[in-house]
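From the shared-data thread, chain only:
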Amino acid sequence: MIRHAKSSWANPMQSDFDRPLNDRGQHDAPMMGLRLNNAGIKPDLIISSTAKRTRQTAKHIAAATGYDFNSVKWEEKLYHCVSSVFEELICEIDDTLKTVFIIAHNPGITEFVNQLSPQFCTGNMPTCGMVGVHFEANGWEDFAIVNRTVFLFDYPRNEHDS
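Structure, as tokens:
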């Protein structure tokens, strides 16, 4: 799970959907993609909201992890969705895929990651924050009913050995 990078509020008349990344977001997204890549976490699939800031975040993450940006699956329903939408999307993932990145928005992404494991809780998923979860199941459709372990919680301002 990846929250989009920091977006720009420079144009107060711009629609929320069309807000681009600001300079910090343009810096953080590729940096966080490199952290994933350096940890050996590479996507078999990237699913992203269609909002401008998530599209831009997806482009940077894809480039840093060697993922073909043209293969990103765009999902309009990820734009400011509730937690249950994430579960619906996850249950539809092809069982041949093992590592999937989902790029979306608050508040839904914070709500969803807080439901992943009883051992994990965050008050707010930071911009360009990432939560990774491991689980064992027969297929993605079992995601909601299996035990999950959060193995990654990282974000741009996290102290990191780089």
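The first strand starts at residue 2 and ends at 3.
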